[in-house]
Amino acid sequence: MAKEIPDLVAEARAGTGKGAARQARREGKVPGIVYGDGKEPAPIQIEFNSLLTKLRAGRFMSTLWNLKVDGQDDVRVICRGVQRDVVKDLPTHIDLMRLHRNTRVNLFIHVTFENHEKAPGLKRGGTLVVVRPEVELVVTASDIPDHITVDLTGREIGDSIHINDVVLPNGVKPTIDRNFVIANIAAPSGLRSSDNEEASAEAAAEE
After folding, report:
1. CA-CA distance, 157 to 74, in Å (whole number)?
2. Whom does it interact with, and what assembly results (predicted)?
3. 187, 151 contact by CB (below 8 A)
4. 181-186 sheet: strands from edge to edge
């Protein structure tokens, strides 16, 4: 399914430069700039508390936003930089890049796992160890998947699940060429201890 594009509400900012940016901050706003798509850069400002909430929610830099500025057409943007106060670690400036609907962009997409009950390895007490809860993928701005799904059906203890094992949506591909691991099913601690004891016994017998 396509990912719903969340709104990012901003205001047009009059003037540029340090003076205008300081004025925006005094008014409880975070100054920013929108650039790209062959158009002139546009100064904006975003309510501080609203932006801080979105930043603390996570994945801000890997989210496609629908930028809404009063009196202007909505535009899809992605954040390319957030400057922060070095002492308080609070946002002081934001850089946003405009995107076309057919623009290809790298985003981190959440991984979900299904059919836990159909995995023999988990039934035997194995543990699902998630190596990559998110995977960086190349996607089209107009059709971003909400998540990718890993089917655990038939998975045994010791199995590793690689990116090539996952059916990706049409037009979506990983940014990394190699067949990297997303998760594995580890043996329960009791079984690992038993295996270690058997291995030690075998080694002693050989000696």
Report:
1. 49
2. Part of the 50S ribosomal subunit; part of the 5S rRNA/L5/L18/L25 subcomplex. Contacts the 5S rRNA. Binds to the 5S rRNA independently of L5 and L18.
3. no
4. 127-130, 181-186, 160-162
Tens digits of residue pLDDT in 52-78: 999 999 888 878 899 999 988 899 899
Other residues' Cβ atoms within 10 Å of the Cβ of residue 119: 21
15-56 tens-digit pLDDT: 777 787 888 888 999 999 999 888 889 999 999 999 999 999
Query: How far apart, in whole angstroms, are the C-alpha atoms of residue 30 and residue 22?
Result: 9
Q: Nearest CA to 45 among 11, 73, 79?
A: 11
Give the Å distances, CA to CA, from 122 to 110, 115, 127, 178: 22, 10, 6, 27
DSSP-derived 3-state class of residue 55: helix
DSSP for 6-50? PEEEEEE-S--SHHHHHHHHHTTEEEEEEEETTEEEEEEEEEHHH
For residue 152, the one-letter residue type is L
Give pairs for 27-30: CB < 8 Å, separation 24+. Answer: 30/91, 30/92, 30/93, 30/94
Asked if 81 and 94 touch (Cβ cutoff 8 Å), the reply is yes
